[in-house]
Amino acid sequence: MDYSLYSVLSVLTGGLGATVSLTASNVTARVISTSVNYTINRKLVFKSENSLLKSSFQYFALAALILTGNTLLLRLLVEQIGMNRYGAKLLTEMFFFILSWLVQRFFIFRKGDVSDEIHQPL
Question: Which end of the chain, N or C, is more open, meaning fewer C-beta atoms within 10 Å of its C-beta?
Answer without folding.
Answer: C
